[in-house]
Write a sequence for this structure.
C-alpha cells in the first residue's frame, strides 16, 4: 500500500514536520495489473463504504464500431501497443489507452479495467 500524500521535503530541501500520522482513507492500493485470461475480478471497499470492482484477468472486451454503431463481445488475442509503459506489451497488461488485437481487428481500450472491472474498446481498424 502506498500513501498518496504531500511530499516530506520542501522545495528548499528541508523537511516538513508531520502534524499527524497517516489515515486509512489516505492509503492507496496496489495497481490491479489486468492480464489476459479467464475472468477474475476482485471487489474492494472504498471510501464512503462504496465498492470498486477490479478486473484481475479478462478474456473478452466489448468493442464498439463507430461506423456501424454496434457493440460486440469479442475475445482478446494480445496487447500490441501501450503508451503507458513498453513493458506492459511484453507482459500483456490491459490498461486504458492500450491497443489490443482481437478477432475483429485492432481496438483501443477506453475503460479503466482496474477501476471499472470491465474492458470497453473502440475499433480502430
Amino acid at each position: 500500500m502506498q500513501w498518496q500524500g504531500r511530499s516530506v521535503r520542501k522545495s528548499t530541501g528541508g523537511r516538513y514536520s508531520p502534524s499527524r500520522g497517516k489515515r486509512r482513507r489516505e492509503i492507496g492500493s496496489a495497481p490491479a495489473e489486468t492480464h489476459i485470461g479467464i475472468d477474475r475480478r476482485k471487489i474492494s471497499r472504498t471510501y464512503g463504504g462504496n465498492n470498486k470492482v477490479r478486473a484481475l484477468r479478462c478474456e473478452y472486451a466489448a468493442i464498439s464500431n463507430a461506423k456501424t454503431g454496434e457493440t460486440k463481445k469479442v475475445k482478446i488475442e494480445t496487447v500490441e501497443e501501450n503508451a503507458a509503459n513498453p513493458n506492459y506489451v511484453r507482459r500483456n497488461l490491459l490498461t486504458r489507452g492500450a491497443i489490443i488485437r482481437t478477432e475483429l481487428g485492432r481496438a483501443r481500450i477506453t475503460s479503466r479495467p482496474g477501476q471499472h472491472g470491465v474492458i470497453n474498446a473502440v475499433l480502430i481498424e
User: Anything to note?
Assistant: Helices lie at 87-91, 113-116. The radius of gyration is 19 Å.
